[in-house]
Write a structure and sequence with these properties.
The protein has 214 residues and is an alpha+beta fold. It has four helices and 13 strands.
């Protein structure tokens, strides 16, 4: 574990932890769900039910619809996807009234690693905080550095922003002064040893050794 802590120290450097706490804003609030490949959607047309259909989002993010052919829905919210389909379907239908429902979708999750008793991937329930996720992972081990729990949150397919939490100072699971509400895809690392410097942004490729679970 000593080598583990040293590798982590090398990975996240460049900004002192005190400066991070003072100058870095809270991680962004959990966004609305974005449609992903493999999701199953149900389309209902109010005035033309003959076009109602259930389709699966293809690996490239597209769906093939009766009214407008290929439409890319990847990374759109349900509201955005509905509007996109309405615009394209307008070439075939006059003022289409469409209801889009997610029938099957990827469950939100977080990954907890490091000095916890049951590291792994966990479903994200409602507004889960970092402390609640740690408890879900069996709590911290005796060697955990609870004052420097690190949250990695994806910015894009290559980078993640970093947030350091002092869970040692939490008095309850509703204490957000030192905690934070998580969003799907967040990765929590509970280290063993103290480290003093962090970068604001890290490459996701560098986290593979600490988070083997996709």
């Amino acid at each position: 574990m000593r080598a583990f802590s040293m590798r982590l120290f090398i990975l996240v450097f460049g900004l002192t932890s005190s400066a991070w706490a003072q100058n870095t804003p809270e991680l962004k609030a959990r966004p609305m769900y974005q449609i992903q490949p493999g999701d199953v959607i149900q389309l209902n047309y109010r005035y033309t039910p003959e076009y109602n259909e259930q389709v699966t989002v293809q690996p490239d993010g597209y769906v093939n619809l009766q009214t407008c052919g290929q439409v890319n829905l990847a990374s759109l919210t349900v509201e955005q996807a509905t509007e996109s389909i309405k615009q394209k379907a307008s070439a075939e239908l006059k003022d289409p009234d469409i209801n889009l429902t997610l029938k099957q979708f990827h469950k939100p999750y977080v990954v907890v690693a490091g000095e916890v008793n049951k590291p792994g991937r966990y479903d994200l329930q409602d507004e889960t905080t970092a402390m609640q996720a740690v408890l879900q992972a069996g709590g911290m081990s005796q060697n955990a550095r609870s004052s420097q729990v690190v949250v990695f949150r994806k910015i894009n397919s290559e980078q993640a922003e970093v947030k350091v939490l002092d869970l040692h100072s939490i008095h309850s699971t509703k204490d957000l002064e030192h905690d934070t509400v998580l969003q799907s895809g967040d990765m929590l690392l509970v280290p063993r040893s103290r480290f003093s410097t962090f970068e604001r942004v890290v490459k996701l490729a560098n986290l593979g050794a600490y988070f083997p679970i996709p």
